[in-house]
Amino acid sequence: MTSKFAGLEFMVELALSYVDGTVSDLAEETKTELTHLFNAYLHEEMSYESCRDALISHIGRDDALVRIREIMSQPDEPLPYREDRDSEDAMSLRKKTRTWTAIEDQRLLAGVARFGIDNWQTVAHFLGNGRNRAQCSQRWTRCLNPKISKKSWSPEDDRQLKELVNLYGDKSWTKTANIMGNRSDVQCRYHFRQLTTGEEEPGSLTKTMSSENFNLQSPPAPSDPSSVPDELMMPLTRSRGFSSTPSLVVKQDTPLLLPLAPIVNRRRCREATTPSVEISGQPKMLWGVTGTDEQSLSTFLSNFH
């Protein structure tokens, strides 16, 4: 007999929350009448058909009653728990993190209807599927409790939340949620973070690395090296050897200054450094820093060997 169940008042609140989620701007008089109807049905003082007809006459729908009947008609046998052959640690981790299914939620609500919210061990055993009392209690408190509001936070709610955090600190979310009355600890913690998180500070990494402040293009090389500022010139040593002619050393009375060239396109680089075939009528290609032509360089190298 369902009339002897310990948690029927929670089912009345649950039924009203279902109605509130589908019917907007429900008058207080209508809420009072619906409360009476659901109470009468759950305590077996009214048949399902009579309660359904009354609901349709008041709000034009009966889906809340249909959902309550599905919860109340859950069988007594718990859901079977299917163990796999993985390690005990992996199985324990999955038990803590696996997502709740619709049938698990339905059986949890049925367990609350039967045993109330003060006997989670019995509720967990009724549910089955390897769920423990801590998981059942947390699921009810944070998700399924019909008192938990899903509506937006009002300025008055924000003010109360800040006052409670100032009073109890930012670690006592369960106590804060209990005083709020219609919010879970997770809702309170998350919303407080939203209220206290400021905008991005000036000069932060995200702003510094924006496309407006970070130019990946190198400036063009000046055609006249004399126009390059001194701080962009690279001094060479007074005496420097060249790998192409190891015995050749160029001595300078003053440092040789070269402009720092920007990174250029690789294709242009290859075209500039690859020797081309000599064409009649064009000047010979000169090699090295001394301006030696190819024939003179070959003669020098043969004599060197």
UniProtKB/TrEMBL annotation:
Which GO terms label this protein's molecular function in UniProt?
A: RNA polymerase II cis-regulatory region sequence-specific DNA binding; RNA polymerase III type 3 promoter sequence-specific DNA binding
InterPro entries named in the record: Homeodomain-like_sf, Myb-like_DNA-bd, Myb_dom, SANT/Myb
Task: Provide the residue span(s) of the region labelled Disordered.
Answer: 197-230
- Which keywords fit this entry according to its UniProt record? DNA-binding, Nucleus, Transcription, Transcription regulation
> Could you tell me which SMART domains the record lists for this protein?
SANT (SM00717)
Keyword Transcription (UniProt): yes
Protein's name in the database: Myb-like DNA-binding domain containing protein
Organism, per UniProt?
Tritrichomonas foetus
Question: What lineage does the source organism belong to?
Answer: Eukaryota, Metamonada, Parabasalia, Tritrichomonadida, Tritrichomonadidae
